[in-house]
Amino acid sequence: MQWFFSGGRYSPSTVWGFVVGLAAACIATQAAAVESRVIYMVIQAEPETTGAEVKDKFTQAVKKIERCNVKDVFVEPIDPQTFTMLRGILQRGLDGARQQQSSGPSALIRPVVGADSGWSIDLGGAFEFIESVTLTLARRAHENGGEEQQVLVTGPGPNPDGYALRLHSPGRYVLTLPKDSNPRSIGFDVIVDDGQAEIRKRRVDHAWPSVGRAYLVTLMDVVGDESELFATLQDPAKVSNPIREIQGATNASLMVASFVEVLGNRLRIQNGQVTFSFPKPQEVNPKRLWLLFPLTAEDLNKEKKALEAVVAEPEGFMRLPEIIRANAANARLAPGRGAGWVELPLGSSGFTGVVDIDVAAWKSRLQSSPRTVGDNALLVYEFEDGPDTLRPLKMTDGYVVTDRIAEWFPALRSAE
After folding, report:
1. In terms of residue numbers, what domain contains 126?
2. Three-point CA angle 282, 286, 287, nearest 5°
3. Same domain assignment for residues 286 and 380
4. pTM listed for this prediction
5. Which of 24, 120, 152, 394 has the least CB density, counted as fewest CB within 10 Å?
């Protein structure tokens, strides 16, 4: 599986982007690699650009390509800080050594992840120190005429309300701004003093990083030459407001590793539907996975005890497929009743199933009565190898497996 990150500004005049390959898994054979891939693209857009507009660009491109097939396109909002952080990682990976050799010291400004209104300034050297920072603020919409406001911020202070500058680590500072500030540019004076050579000073001026909105675009089951898709996305004759530049994914790789088992994103909400994705367990060969979700802790215990009572009967496990199908999902996933058991057939990348969801009702319930919105699930893996062979698979935890889908609440909160 090969993952791509791409960023692009959508506006009538300015579009830019980047791509980085993310090696997420090892493919056992070359044949498996060419069957289908999942491509992830991280998109930066103008503040007013909606997820529907972003998806429309990709829908236009997918309809006009011939050598590449894309099964589905999902678009979901992400924190703009995440986009900026990924862009910073890529720029350091691709350009770090070259910039140090050819252009001398630089300063990288990016949001501090997890800290509201905090910005990191990386000077690039442990013996570099900021004397003061000057911010140029844009005029507010109701202000007419006059010059843009400038704010001076120093480490010792005193500083205007909401502004602060502190040393984080050698060569790195954290600048804090009021939440309603709107900088257009930043400048600061840097002292270079390693205790040996003569003290030097340099001036650094930067346009303020543009963040805007950010989206994660997931292209499912991509087969063929994805370069045709990228070329179409950049063709103004085929796509309105196209992406103007996409760097080749072969230029950099970002690898994900973990000391713990990672199941990936098993739930995604998009366009009034929730998509469930689960990996195939080892050592068994199920035909499908049945999922009962979402359940509170009380619901989980009640439903599991009822099913375990059936299994405890003589040959009771053989009745599970019939019981599940009698309560299979036949309506939207909604508060109070759920949707019943959801079928997730086995595909090339694991078990995947889609069901309609009442997003507005769930978000309202989550806000008014969060304790009644659970994120627990029951799973039953099912074997089938011909007529009259439906059998639940006995896993380590038994025929009925309990699970918790932690992605549920964040996906609800960010769903449009």
Report:
1. 103-207
2. 145
3. yes
4. 0.46
5. 152
